[in-house]
Design goal:
The chain has one domain: hypothetical protein tt1634, CATH 3.40.1520. A 3-stranded mixed β-sheet has the order 1-2-3, with helices on one face. The chain is elongated, with a radius of gyration of 22 Å. Helix 3 crosses helix 5. With 127 residues, it is an alpha+beta fold. It has helices spanning 2-25, 34-41, 55-70, 76-79, 99-113, and strands at 82-86, 89-96, 118-124. It has 5 helices and 3 strands.
Length: 127
């Protein structure tokens, strides 16, 4: 019993040291979202925190988000885009991995809100 406990303690210590060593050897690169953050600070650019909380807009956002989550071909980025709705008009913002994802996200929103009610401001990552 003592051998098992000693083996577990030593194994934990070795694994812990390996993790520390890996963390020390990997360079830390801070994300640079300054351009996106500057865009969202623009007074003319509405953010989700500024949208009205009326039932119809919240329901519209819920339906669009549900559609995004159901589409398993979309990346995590695409499923987590910002959806802002004001009086039935929807704005999509955030990064996606490809033009295909940008189109798919917009199509889901247009199916729910209507083609003329969606402002697609999604950005393809890396462009």
């Amino acid at each position: 019993m003592k051998r098992i406990a000693l083996t577990l303690v030593l194994s934990s210590a070795l694994l812990g040291l390996g993790t520390v060593t890996m963390a020390q050897n990997s360079p830390e690169v801070a994300p640079d979202n300054s351009a996106v953050n500057a865009r969202d600070r623009n007074p003319a650019a509405m953010t989700a925190g500024q949208q009205p909380n009326n039932k119809s807009d919240l329901e519209l956002i819920r339906k669009i988000r549900k559609g995004l989550i159901k589409d398993h071909s979309l990346s995590l980025l695409a499923r987590n885009v910002k959806i802002i709705s004001v009086n039935g008009s929807v704005t999509l913002r955030g990064p996606v991995n490809s033009e295909d994802e940008k189109t798919k996200v917009a199509n889901i929103a247009q199916t729910v809100a209507g083609a003329d009610k969606v402002d697609n401001q999604l950005d393809v990552k890396g462009q």
